[in-house]
Fold this sequence. Notes:
Elements: H1 8-20, H2 25-32, H3 36-48, E1 52-55, E2 59-62, H4 67-77, H5 80-83, E3 89-91, H6 96-105, E4 110-115, E5 118-124, H7 125-134, E6 148-149, H8 162-172, E7 176-184, E8 190-199, H9 200-211
Parallel strand pairs: 3-4
Antiparallel strand pairs: 1-2, 4-5, 5-6, 7-8
Helix pairs in contact: 2-3
Amino acid sequence: MIQIQLSERQEKIIDIVRDNEPITSENIAKRLELTRATLRPDLAILTMSGILDARPKVGYFYTGKTTFSFISEKIRGIKVMDRKSVPIIVDEETSIYDGIVTMFLEDTSTIFVTSKGFLSGVVSRKDFLKNAIGGLSLNKTPIAVIMTRMPNIVVTKPEESILDAAIKLIDREIDSLPVVEEAEDENGSPAYKVIGRITKTTITRLFVELGNNE
Ligand code: ADP
């Protein structure tokens, strides 16, 4: 576990090393008017967490990593596959009515739509509302009529970092991304299999965990 919260003394040590590297523990202790023994646990934490580098007989170096770069490194290390949840999927021929029922029953704000098992579209709450106002027959019209279609679907892949997925959600102003795997359809054309989803809730949950230092 990375030590994210540093004490005031540890922050001071970092400043001293940054301005005077390489510097021995003896000299750091002198500047702080403390004994080397008092500093030992702080120096151990700072080297173990990678903020300082210790070279025998030379002294301590500053690695340039800040507390913030640790948080960002930690987030970048988390992959979509570590966090994806179960996608809610219906076939293109499902009626708008059944799509609305699915949205309620599954307590989701976005439904992914497939054709012959491959991603063909996305339907959100607003798509349903827009078309309810439009007066389409909910029972007779397939969901395919109102969905946002491929190739306009923004997707994410299992290996992508969760940060990049979150950036897509923000930049495109959408609530949810299908997690896809590349495949070939029956004609040998490139297609996507849906294997999960990343939503704003996924990101909020992660934010809370990081905030609670879990
Ligand atoms: P809401 O309807 O609750 O505002 P969104 O903001 O996610 O939900 O959806 C806004 C629009 O973007 C809808 O028309 C929806 O079909 C479309 N949309 C949602 N997710 C995606 C996605 N991953 N890729 C492309 N378009 C999407």
